[in-house]
Write a structure and sequence with these properties.
3 domains; alpha/beta; Rossmann fold; 14 helices; Archaeosine Trna-guanine Transglycosylase, Chain: A, domain 4; 6-stranded parallel sheet
Amino acid sequence: MKKIYVLDTNVLLQDPRSVLSFEENEVVIPAVVLEEVDSKKRYTDEIGRNARYMSRLLDKYRQKGKLHEGVDLENGGTLRVELNHRSFQRLRDTLIEKTNDNRIIAVALNLKEEQDVKPQGGRPVTLVSKDALVRVKAEVFGLHAEDFLSDQVVQYSKIYPGSQELKTKREVINQLYSDQKIEIKHVAQHERLNPHQFIIFKDEMGSSASAIGRVSADQQSVTLLHQEEHVWGVKPRNAQQKMALELLLNDDIPLVTMTGKAGTGKTLLSLAAGLYKIEDEHRYQKLLVARPVVPMGKDIGFLPGEKEEKLRPWMQPIYDNLEFLFHAKKPGELDRILAGMNRTIQVEALTYIRGRSIPEQFIIIDEAQNLTKHEVKTIITRVGEGSKIVLMGDPEQIDHPYLDESNNGLTYVVEKFKSYAVSGHIKLEKGERSSLAKLAAQIL
């Protein structure tokens, strides 16, 4: 039996093509949703873009027929705009205010009542919303409600970690140390390993023998992980940090992604590797550091000054790490150092990256979990010849209103690129900022 899906505004603003995600069923858009989409189309961010795209999409379907009567979709389903929310009169005792969310619930409830009086119960009605409270309120009135899951790349608990532990024979570990490389057949007989995936070998008999190897780009062998003592004064403190530096310092891997909780060293390691590649090896011309301008909590409003002065509060975490790397302790010392480097280091907001082509640069994108799929695509397609880009962030700390752990841009890139030799990924697990920060990340 075909179903009826009623879509909330946040579903369309998250994915304007979501109307095509419900197979051969009927998709209903309440008229109040059109009002909300229209109010967002002047925004200059991703939400505004999706609102404008949705407006054009509906106009295209309007040319097929009358939207309030229903038009056919490419996937075999139908799309209809519903004007009737008279069931709100019955909701007044519970939902006093006539908010847009409550009007959407009323539309779905009205459709359910129409279907319930039909012979054999009619078609089931489902309200689809990214808003948890809308789903809760809907089910209070007997409506079936669901989250929109088609935009999720993978469940957060199943995100590719970039490394895995493997119990093996002592002879395999010894061979890896002696030959520096072993064939993949000695490692994985029953599972597929991704390019540049790290393997932590442990003796299956329980001895202390261990080794760390990296799967080759062609997935034919595993190479022993070599690590320099320190990079720009930063020494890796755990196995995952060693793996991260291996990816960051490898010029054959133009895309590196890193995830991890606060204090695991993502930003510091990336900056140290970038400075090493630019100042010591002269492999790249510039170090470009950028992060999305998404506030945590209430925004403090417009900031005075030129672009650099406006950006300084947003980019302060970057400057904090640069002060540590340059041992700049006096006020203004870091600014003098950066000025003397002839703009080798640039700190930018991602707002200005569209339309650029960035060749021969070491690019670091911090807080990438606050990027949408479209934004992260825009960023990676800016990468020019000879550049390396590093995307990092904590999917558990998202400040964007329409993103979560499973549908953000960082998770999207990790899952889509994991099987390609141009990319490498590692999840940092152990906090190294301080014992207090590590404890806070675990228990708070």
